[in-house]
Fold:
Amino acid sequence: MNLPVRDLDASAAFYEAIGAMRNPQFSDDSAKSYMFSETIAVMLLTHARYGEFTSRPIGDARAESQALLAISVDSREAVDATLNAGADAGGTADPNPPQDHGFMYSRSIEDPDGYVWELVWMDPAAVAGDMSLQ
Structure:
């Protein structure tokens, strides 16, 4: 996923705080690559660099919802800890109401550019199909 960002360094600090690992191989002064796993990557691009890939205007995620992105974490406590780390690194906690369904717990955090990430924990038994936990 490619995200246009206003301040590359501020965005980098936020993504590192919520657990992404920087990939220096694809990072420079106009782009920074972050990995959430071996298969999930976020490429942060300055507006000028992002503009090289599209002729469309860059929207303002602070004013309009463009997508809700999700990161799965290992526990309810990890949801709160990740949210707090992101807020300490310049994010905004809970732009959407927290959700607690017993078997699933989530909170959201907005990055410095307004992109909203859902931090989600699901009970492994519920994921395996034991919905009697509801």
